[in-house]
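FORM 7B - TANDEM STRUCTURE REPORT

SECTION 1: FIRST PROTEIN
SEQUENCE AND TOKENS:
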Amino acid sequence: MPPLDIPKLVPGDRVQHELLVRERDDKTTKTGDPFVILKLGNATGVLSVNVWKEHVPVIEGVRPGQVVQVIGQVDTYKGARQLKLTAPPRVVAASAGNLDEFLPRVSVSIDELWARVDAWRAEMKGTLKRVVDLFFADDTFRERFARTPGATRGHHAQVGGLLLHSCEVANIARTSVQTMRGDVALVTAGALLHDIGKVEAYAVELAGFEYTQSGQLLGHIVLGSLMLDDRLRTLPEGTVSEAQRLELHHFIQSHHGIPEYGAAVRPMTLEAEILHYADQSSAKGNDFNEAVEDAELFPGEDLEFSAKRSWRLERRVWRRKHRWD
């Protein structure tokens, strides 16, 4: 059976597929009756299921991270699509789960993204190239980097999200720094290195994207600097000066902009400042792109403004009806 294309489902469509339980939210109605909201999904998207009081006992053992076979029909509730079950979901053995089938992934070609990275690396020279190649000429690191999400929830939370985000940041930063007469190669290196710690901070599992132990205890910024130091030690002594080493760490430690958002220090160079804003632009741009496609924010095709605030953007979103072409 072909994979279920969730975004293309319309009311009346029948569903008889295996889906991953992304979330389970146990609630009670105003009258005290229990009900459960399940978020079921695959690599194409997510579909909600409202399970009412009389059927709650049949899903007692259903938990996030499990793959379930569901049978039902697409319906609408308060203008939003949902799946109305016609039979109890059946839990499928976890070993049968396939990450590529159930987890969201970027729509851009991974090969195309790597081609961009490698073209930028080819422009670099000397010490800067040697440092960047410590990571991005390493096939094992590249494989891990290409599967890591940009976040566990939020911007670029997809398989391949970190690679896509890093390329977006580099594109934005390169254009901006050239406009402001800065060092293009240097800011490109900062863009590629700024989030390397996420490879160690995030785990990609059938249940979704989670923090690793080190990710919880240290966070991706600290982990990124530790990873950078480890690899710099493999270079012959004197290859990288102390000032150069500190500048590379400064990109990692300052890219969140201010301490309130996790930065150790504020950016102190043109290139570090531009990297920070490029990082923000990629993250917020992704938030807007996904918000206008979010069925929970726009439960009806006729809506111009989102039905509620986006938690990622902390505001309602306008989906313009007019065109400019």
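SECTION 2: SECOND PROTEIN
SEQUENCE AND TOKENS:
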Amino acid sequence: MNIIRRRGWELPERAATPEHLFFNRRAFLAATGATLVAPGLASAEGAADTSDPSAHLYPAKRNEKYVLDRAITDEAINTTYNNFYEFGSAKTISRAAQALKLRPWTVKIDGMVAKPFEIGLDDLLAKMPLEERLYRHRCVEAWSMAIPWSGFPLAKLVELAQPLGSAKYLRMETFLDRAMAPGQRAVWYPWPYVEGLTIAEATNELAFLVTGAYGKPVSKSQGAPLRLAVPWKYGFKSIKSIVRFNFTDQRPNTFWEALQASEYGFWANVNPQVPHPRWSQATEELIGTGERRPTLLFNGYADYVANLYQGLEGERLWA
């Protein structure tokens, strides 16, 4: 008998192809079991650690420059339907992610900088201007959310790092702890999770380091205590639980690119006219609503970022 063993990164068509996705709030809650658990359990799973020493920093003041064309996704949905491969390949990793230990959390800044250093997360937060921004989030699987992130511009961390003029890229790295994160025991993945941006992308005003969401410290399932939000790119670029920022003159070999370069490239900008090899990107499902909408170029942020890619027409910018 021929037994087919699907590797963890190979999504079945029914899970990834937009035509087979159907979500509304009732269906979502039923599928995740949220309608069957005691009241408050779902919100408890999505809530921040009560011992989080940064809790007093939230809610942060909203920056009204960044507005949405859709309603904010319910917190219960956002914190229980997402990818965090360190804790499993299914979307429902919120329970498993509670094993994530948030303190002590140290961030390393090294590579081509004036002086490499390490800094505790709370010391880093004390140096940064926190604010809330409403951002669209577009997954490569053709679903989307709208999220009230709190945090600070990535450009502020770049400024703190003082990179050398020869640095061209920012390489970011997630924690590596196989005892804590069972997904990291899967040997077919190139752990730790690595992502990268050009310095120009990293210093664009939209690039945002997230430390909170929904008026509180960001939940473990969303990538606490420090994750990236680059809303003009597909969601897999928004690396979670970051422990290292490395400035380099070499383009980083990112996690999904190392795993399947034909489907997940370095740039990963949103474009409705360029399909994924296995499904269309022309429309997207607004998770929790059952609504489909046309996908927007750069996820609707072209005015902010289109200039970053002038002269790069030879690059594969859209996958």
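SECTION 3: OBSERVATIONS ON SECOND PROTEIN
Residues 61 and 158 are 22 Å apart (CA to CA).
The mean pLDDT is 88.

SECTION 4: SIGNATURE
Preparer initials: ____
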